[in-house]
Amino acid sequence: MSCPAVNVPVTVWIVRDGNGENPARDAAEIPGLLADANKILWQNGLTLVQNGAVRYLNNDAWRNHTDVLNPANTNLAAMLDSTNSMGNAVELYFVKTLEGTAVGGLCWPEGIVIAAIGDGQTLAHEVMHDCGLVDIYTVEDPYGPDPNPVSGPVSEERIPADWGGGYYPPGLTQRELITRLIMRGERFGPEPPFSVSVCLPRGTVYGWQNAGGGTGRTLGNAGVGQSAVRRNPGSY
User: Which of 62, 113, 147, 214 has its CA 20 to 30 A from that of 169?
Assistant: First the structure.
């Protein structure tokens, strides 16, 4: 499956303290982060292009965020609502922390937020969320006594559009394959780092995915590939 080439304008915002000091990210790092993300996003024909100079938001309350998965989070919403590109660009916000060091990035309709620990892989992952893709996990419950990992080998029904696609070696387990995907949602135990999670398959992949409504995870084929792309990225 080939994807048409699309340049995606990116408006960059860096949060500083209320005195305009202590930026959450050095502006000199931004071109490298975009370049690293683009090395992954080319699989979907996307190239992030910085739109103008770096902008700054001076607000102590916006440097560190907690409770970031709560849709009622007014602090995060206030930061994201302070600008509006009307879908004509991706609004990219750099903050110091998201849930301490537990979260590297997140995607809301209003923009993408990257913490200081986030890198190009983090950015590419969040951009693909903006395109409509979902997270996929290797285990059902990383905090339970039985995490219930995905078992068994890769098979045609588990990667129906990618069987024989070449991004996995013979004999790979399904759990190992999931760790190679850009939409991998977490690292569990001794699994490899996120730096190896860069593959964008053509179609769905079997694994654990969020059930919605905070009701846990379900096992099945998840929309983590090009077939699940619904739109070009943009913030509203």
Answer: 147
* CA proximity to 204, closest of 187, 220, 221: 221
Angle at 185 between CA 88 and CA 96, to 5 degrees: 65
The enclosing H or E element of 36 equals helix 30-41
From the number of C-beta atoms within 10 Å of its C-beta (0-12, 13-18, 19+), residue 158 rates as buried
Return the structure tokens found at 227. 């077939």
Share of the chain above pLDDT 90, in %: 83
Q: Say how many Å lie between the first and final Cα of the chain, rounded.
A: 29
Mind listing the pLDDT tens digit for each residue in 29-66? 999 999 999 999 999 999 999 999 999 999 999 999 99
Please state which CATH number belongs to domain 6-130: 3.40.390.10
- Token pair of 31, please? 């071109």
Digit-coded pLDDT (tens) for 130-139: 999 999 999 9
> Which residue reads 């110091």 in tokens?
96
- Domain ranges, ordered by start, for the chain: 6-130, 156-228
The residue among 78, 60, 64, 66 whose CA lies nearest residue 16 is: 60
